[in-house]
Sequence to fold (466 residues):
Amino acid sequence: MPEHSKSEAFFSEAKTLIPGGVNSPARAFGAVGGNPVFIDSGEGAYLVDVDGNRYLDYVQSWGPMILGYAHLKVTEAIQSTAAKGTSFGAPTPQENELAKTLIDLYPPIEKIRFVNSGTEAVMSAIRLARGYTGRDKIVKFIGNYHGHVDSLLVAAGSSAATLGVPNSPGVTSGAVQDTILLPYNDVQAIKDTFQKQGSEIAAVIVEPVAGNMGCVIGNSNFLYELRHLTQANDAVLIFDEVLSGCRAGKAGAGQRFSITPDITTLGKVIGGGLPVGAYGGKAEIMDNILPVGKVFQAGTLSGNPLAMAAGIATLQVLLEGSTFSLLERKCAMLAEGLEDEARNAGIPVYVEQIGSMMTLFFLSDEADRDDANKNRQGHISVNGAVVELTTATSSTGGCLSRKITDWDSVSRCNTERYAKYFWGMLERGFYFPCSQFEAFFMSVPITEKEIAATIEAAGEVFKTLK
Ligand SMILES: *Cc1c(COP(=O)(O)O)cnc(C)c1O
Fold:
């Protein structure tokens, strides 16, 4: 195990100063047991901790650092902007520039507002949808995360409750009484809900590619149905692409599936590592925000020049030439490689990958046993003809019955095995997310050679997991 004594000392001190020693719980390594490493710096694809250990990083600050750390163009943009003053509370040309870039990139976005985090973007989009429709109810999907907005902090990737029961103390039952929770990718559930309550629903909010229960891709039928039902019932469709934007596709999952939401929420990548969120959509809806309309939303640091500069520089590099398709190809290479190695080691996994995001799900022993039983059976009979049973039916692995499609299937994964995998990889210099229920991300500076080294190390670790 690499030396972690300085990290340990910083963490002990942090715990006396900051609740749990961290400013966001995802960083605490709670799900894998043990203490977080403290970071000194980042260089391209690598993180360097305070003890001097280097890690090839697949977390990327949970998504934003798609160009890697300290990218020259981004750093220069931040430095030259900072030299002119860091906040004015008055409009700047940089806001127009990032707005134009995103409006060009995302056809469903006609007008956009910048805020300071993904949470703020979602909170504002929900208020706008309610203000615009004059209705109260919001549909959200179990296992989708939309930041720590009170009304959406139910079944936010950690609870399988199907009623509006708050997950967090401090979220009042009043705050969630208008939240309708449904299973992800369940077409019938959303049809039934609209049939019963269609005229009360202000908005449906969804991660079209979920990234906060691990990477789980929205079924295109399901997403089309959401579009159809919201349109037919005059409700607002909100695609929360804070994570999937510029990752699931160049312009997010909406573009990838050719579905036009009414409002898109963005964050992470579009701020290039500075605090940013944005929400945008049809002008007819967006013009209900103050000062044009009556829906209140404001922010002292919103559209901050440093954040705009970092976002503009990041998108310029990301959208150049074949950068994005290369990124996707590298992510597919990692996904396939990890899956092969796991198979070779006899570890049951299911890999989901799209664009530059993916998750390796360790299937439970229960799924393992089911699979073994099926294998023992050997053949099944279809219409009188004997068909050989194969376990692998898709390039992304697993047999269909094991496919990960929603929180229910995700929550049955083998988190203990994931924890061992996580530490095995960290020990070998690879920084993966510290929870089975988070996505891995590919970044521009990671090379094919480094991916091959990752796959080789994973092969060693899988062999220790039996
Ligand atoms: C990260 C995330 C948020 C919240 O963004 P913050 O900047 O952390 O507030 C909202 N929605 C999705 C889909 C996210 O992944």
